[in-house]
Amino acid sequence: MKVGIIGLPQSGKMTLFEILTGNQRKDGLPVTKATPGSADILDTRFDALVSMYGPKKEARARIDLMLLPKMEQENIAKGDIFRDIADVDAICHVVRAFEDEAVYHVDGSVDALRDIDMVTSELLIHDQIFVEKRIERLEKAIRKIKDEAQQKELDLMLRMQAHLEGEKPLRLMEIDDDEEALIRSYPFITRKEMILALNIGEDDIDSNHITGEVIQRCESQSMKAMQVSAKVEAEIAMLDTEEEKNEFMEELGITEMALETLTRLCLEALGLVSFFTVGTDEVRQWLVRRHSPAPVAAGVIHSDLQRGFIRAEVMKYDELMEHGDEAALKKVGKMYLNGKDYIVEDGDILNIRFKV
């Protein structure tokens, strides 16, 4: 799972990227090409399982991040940034919502809705241009030789064109499996899930900048929204101990760190759920597509487990926490054995029985 971080100049996207990944860029130079990084997914359930089992090894699931060059006319004209965006699974658009006279704004003033619309428009235009070129090629090819597959694709492209001209992203458009197969390799950007991160100032932490207008914009574009003060979270990240961090967060009224919020929204947007494997040797968090059957989840751990799957021994996280340990869970009959048809749920703790 790879999330691309985009935004206008001085929106705070580099600061947010550095907080999330721990990669501090010391040269201070502008980002001219995609910069990769990764971050652990923060999940309090994982922490509780580690405390319960005291394993020799612990491994969180990770999220891959990509800091992309700023959305300015030079980069947009070159088109490289769109190729980078096409390579990610979801987009995090960082929007400036903080006032600071020392930090210039490319348009001279802070206006979150204007900036949201500007970036959204550029992404829509990219997909429109691709669709228009594809329509031209298909119409030219069909005039020479009638081809059923090309005609189906042309019909789909014409529907997409009308949809985009209505200023609606393609993620709002219903596409069936056959149509999906026709366009799977195409670099559509507005089909990707998008998360809006409003970067607020320290004085605004107690207020909610996700206003009615922002909510309306997000709902109309099928985007998820969060707010974060990148500057404050950078200060928190510099503190030495978890105790100091927690005290500082409590003083400021921050209940959830940016990484925890962002990864949770990314998992929701991409339709992923977490499951765990536990023991005194290792506690590990895994990610799998929502609605996946147990053998598919087993395959995330190792292909042999999927190939030789017999059944899954399942514990429910909440029930394990309620009863205190595995022995107590077995005693009350809440250790479940499930077959190949079992659909893995978020928070499941799995022990895969298999034979190869």
Automatic annotation (TrEMBL):
Alphabetical keyword list: ATP-binding, Coiled coil, Metal-binding, Nucleotide-binding
InterPro entries (alphabetical): ATPase_YchF/OLA1, Beta-grasp_dom_sf, GTP-bd, P-loop_NTPase, TGS-like, TGS-like_dom_sf, YchF_C
Pfam families the UniProt entry points to: YchF-GTPase_C (PF06071)
Name recorded for this polypeptide: Ribosome-binding ATPase YchF
Superkingdom of the organism of origin: Bacteria
Keyword Metal-binding listed: yes
SUPFAM superfamilies, A to Z: P-loop containing nucleoside triphosphate hydrolases, TGS-like
The YchF C-terminal domain, residue ranges: 272-354
Coiled-coil ranges from the UniProt annotation: 128-155
Origin species: Desulfoluna limicola
Lineage: Bacteria, Pseudomonadati, Thermodesulfobacteriota, Desulfobacteria, Desulfobacterales
